[in-house]
Amino acid sequence: MKNKDFIQETADKIIESLKNGTAPWIKPWKGIELTNNMPYNPITNKPYNGINSINLMLQNYNDPRWLTYKQAQSINAQVKKGEKAINIFAPIIITELLDEKKKVVSLLSKATPQQLEMLKMGILTRNDRLLGFETTSVFDIQQTTATLDMYPEIIKRMYEKESEIDFTKYNHALHTIMEENNIKFTDKDNRVGITTLGYYIPSQDVIFLQNNLSNVARFKTLTHELAHGLLHKKTTLNKDEKEFQAQMTSNVVSELLGIPIKENDISYVKEYSKGFTAEKKEELTKDVIKVTNKILDSYDDSIE
Predict the structure, then answer these.
(1) Residues 6 or more apart from 169 whose CB is under 8 A from it?
(2) How many Cβ atoms from other residues are within 10 Å of residue 10's Cβ?
(3) Which element (helix H / strand E) includes 67?
(4) Percent of the chain clearing pLDDT 70 (strictly above)
(5) CA distance 304 to 300
(6) Which comes out higher in pLDDT, residue 87 or 258?
(7) Helix (H) or strand (E) holding 46
(8) Interatomic CA distance for residues 1 and 8, integer angstroms
(9) 3 state SS for 215-277
(10) In terms of Cα–Cα distance, which of 145, 153, 143 is closest to 34?
């Protein structure tokens, strides 16, 4: 499957869920539940990010654990007969050996015994480089014969309260993207009314936020306005179309990062998309996915 086909498939599923009046990124995992409420791999204990996470959330499974066929076999489980895999993007990474001038001398997989010894001594260093992505297949744990004693123990916990969420790295990721795209930020502007949390001015490429927002409101509003900045500096879209894209981005990013989505967040999307056809929603959602990936990639970089 080509990358663009995979993105289109995911967009189609999001649009279909919106058309049915449901929010695909809200799942019924409440109270004391599995450690990760978002899709993750129970073998590596790593979450699926970006478009992969969105795509897996759109499947009709109440368990967020996804693994490959070989990983299922590694815990002595089998994929049940007739079950179909879900395609996701997998990174293609090569490991290089670099000299002191950061020049590539060999691939780790082809290194000589002498080069491996130089690596141990610190004369050479290793560098993982991303070549691109390929599609691979995964299965939900419910599609396998795995039982509780077959995979790593899962620690249970209560959902974090909003007041306990550390927004430092989340906000850093947003501001990093702003800097990379020359979008300025200010909280000093007397023109805005008390009911307006923030806005983006395309002609100045600047985002304004009220300076008295709660951590949650600040993050969601900044994500919303950043989507405007990335998508709407030069656009022919009307107001409803722009607001749909911005709020969809805020909702999806928030849920992927474990920040609770409220009813008014959902209502905002529904309000601005009332007159949209399925085709229009599909077209607009493609850019939502792109911006969501950009934000999540920035967040991933900030915690490495």
Answers:
(1) 299, 302, 303
(2) 23
(3) strand 66-67
(4) 76
(5) 7
(6) 87
(7) strand 46-47
(8) 11
(9) HHHHHHHHHHHHHHHHHCCCCCCCHHHHHHHHHHHHHHHHHHCCCCCCHHHHHHHHHHCCCCC
(10) 153
- What is the identity of the amino acid at 24? P
Q: With a threshold of 0.90, does the pTM exceed it?
A: no
Length reported for the chain: 304
Please compute Rg for the chain using Cα positions.
Answer: 22
Two tokens, residue 139:
């299965």
The rounded distance, in Å, linking the Cα atoms of 251 and 25 is: 8
Query: Cα(251)–Cα(261) distance, rounded to whole angstroms?
Result: 7
Place of tokens 């979450």: 47
Residue pointed to by tokens 């993750």: 40
- Confidence label for 32 from pLDDT (cuts 50, 70 and 90): very low
Confidence of residue 253 (pLDDT cuts 50, 70, 90): confident
Q: Which two tokens stand for residue 84?
A: 């179909």
Half-sphere exposure for 158 (CA within 13 Å, toward CB): 5
139, 86 contact by CB (below 8 A): yes
pLDDT band for 63, please (50, 70, 90 cuts). confident
Alpha helices in the chain (DSSP H): 3-19, 50-57, 69-74, 113-121, 168-180, 215-231, 239-256, 263-272, 278-302
Residue 96: which H helix or E strand, with range?
A: strand 86-98
Query: Is 184 within 8 Å of 225 (Cβ atoms)?
Result: no
Task: End-to-end CA distance of the chain: give it in Å, rounded.
Answer: 30
* Residue indicated by tokens 């056809």: 277
Determine the residue type at 99.
D
